[in-house]
Amino acid sequence: MSMPHRAIHRVENAEALDKVAEPVSSVVQRAVQPKPIRDLLSGTNLGHPLHPSLTDVAIGAWSMAGLLDMVGGSEAEPFTELMTAAGVAAAVPTALTGFNDWADTLGAERRVGLVHAGLNTVALALYAASLVASRGGGRRKGKALRFAGLTAMGISAYLGGHMSFAQGVNVNRTAWQEGPDDWTPVLAASELAEGEHRTADADGVRVLLYRTATEVHAIAATCSHMGGPLGEGTIENGCVICPWHDSTFRLADGGIERGPASSPQPSYEARIQNGRIEVRVPPPGAQSDMAKEGAHRRGRRLLSRASAS
């Protein structure tokens, strides 16, 4: 095992970090509870998490400042300060989105994320201090603070990469699921009454089935956000709410009604044939039609609520 892996392994198993992580996570979860805040910070309407996109801005600006420190002379100082200030400005929304994502983690992922956040905070403080020093005439001090900030940021970026690529934090948990292309029986129709939901196996993929008076809906039963079991969720207004982090998906087409999920659920065609419920992956073009129908139903639901009020 390499030295970086040994270091991360120690962090992953440092249960003492939980004493800090748990209360901080609870505070963050309460702060991001309102739907507009949760959806914005999670990148729900973006189609993938917002945090990674924002990290590129801060890392890019601070890296460029470091490059100018190394190869630029005194005439490059204004541009170095500009890059430093841009990184500081970008670091604030980046941190907010990062804390939002981190609050949903547990165990080893939460511990690594806490250290990752701590190093980012140190880097932000060092870069902010370098601006104060440089503008006060202390150019050497400002440069030293920037290099210290670059070091903290580099270690933090390594930890962030470990969380994404080694631990799989906040990746789409349904990305590799491939349901059946042909109609596949999954459940006897008599086993699913109107208004009930159940999970079943469709050629190795768990699907969530929900029956209405006129049709059966089928979507992936594993939450795309963190892998939560949607079969244990609650059904409200034509949607299923994940029991883990309250991501809410439309049963008609798998679309997202509420984050923190940013990837919709895979949706399947379903029918009742010879007393059996059958599902299949929608043929090309059919998925968009299902999404349009889901949007129409959502619009009708909103209109009915408005008229009722």
Strand content: 15-25%
Can you write the helix and strand succession as a string?
A: HHHHHHHEEEEEEEEEEH
What order do the strands of the largest sheet run in, or round the barrel if closed? 1-10-9-4-3-2
- Termini Cα gap: 63 Å
The residue ranges in which pLDDT falls below 50 over 5 or more consecutive positions are: 299-309
Beta strand count: 10
Number of helices: 8
Helix content: 40-55%
Q: Give the biggest beta sheet.
A: 6 strands, antiparallel
Shape: elongated
Explain this structure.
Helix 4 (51-71) packs antiparallel against helix 5, helix 4 runs antiparallel to helix 7 (139-166) and helix 6 packs antiparallel against helix 7 (139-166). The chain is built from eight helices and ten strands. A six-stranded antiparallel β-sheet has the order 1-10-9-4-3-2, with no helix packed on it. The chain folds into two domains: 3-166; 184-283, Rieske Iron-sulfur Protein, CATH 2.102.10. Strand 2 and strand 3 form a beta hairpin. Residues 299-309 have low confidence and may be disordered. The chain is α+β, with helices and mostly antiparallel strands. Helix content is 51%, strand content 15%.
